Amino acid sequence: MKNILALLGLVLALSGLGLAIAGDNLREQQTPTVKSVTEQALDKGRELWDGKRRAPRDRLAQLQMALGALGALFGLAGLLKKEHPLMSLVAMAAGGSAAAWNWLANLIF
Questions:
Q1: Residue 105, SS3 per DSSP
Q2: Contact indicator for 85, 3 with CB cutoff of 8 Å
Q3: Burial 47-66 (b: 16+ CB within 10 A, else e)
Q4: At what angle do helices 23-30 and 59-80 cross, to 10 degrees?
Q5: C-alpha span between 41 and 36 (Å, rounded)
Q6: Burial class (CB in 10 A: 0-12, 13-18, 19+), 41
Q7: % helix, strand, coil for the chain, step of 5
Q8: What span, in angstroms and rounded, lies between the C-alpha atoms of 61 and 48?
Q9: What are phi and psi of 84, to 5 degrees?
Q10: Which residues are within 8 A (CB) of 14 and not within 5 positions of it... i.e. 6 or more apart?
């Protein structure tokens, strides 16, 4: 198989991107809350009002950034080894997006 690095990078990058996109839903399932809906809404409003909204720094965020960075690196290695260029570039783009998802989502939402 000639495109092994690019394919491995693509798999890692897409799994990191999928984890990044579904991360909020997974976080909600992991941590049960005992606060009421009103308290949660007030806390969220205070975060937005004070400008203290930060990107999450838990193991899930670290895993998605690591998978994204590894996918981008394997995509770059595949590009340097003259493997399939489109597959390598897509792996690099998806890996970069997965690694930067926390900051991107914080800017947009």
A1: helix
A2: no
A3: eeeeeeeeeeeeebbeebbe
A4: 150
A5: 9
A6: exposed
A7: 80, 0, 20
A8: 20
A9: -55, 115
A10: 71, 94
- Angle between the N-to-C axes of helices 85-99 and 101-108, in degrees from 0 to 180, rounded to the nearest 10: 60
Residue whose tokens read 């399939």? 84
Candidates 28, 31, 17, 97; CA nearest to 64 is: 17
Does this model's pTM top 0.85? no
DSSP state letter for 100: T
Dihedral sign for Cα 16, 20, 21, 24, please. Answer: positive
Query: In the structure encoding, which two tokens stand for residue 42, read together?
Result: 């007030």
Model confidence pLDDT, tens digit, residues 31-69: 556 667 778 778 777 776 676 555 566 788 888 888 888
CB 91 within 8 A of CB 9: yes
55 in helix, strand or coil?
Answer: coil
pLDDT value at residue 1: 64
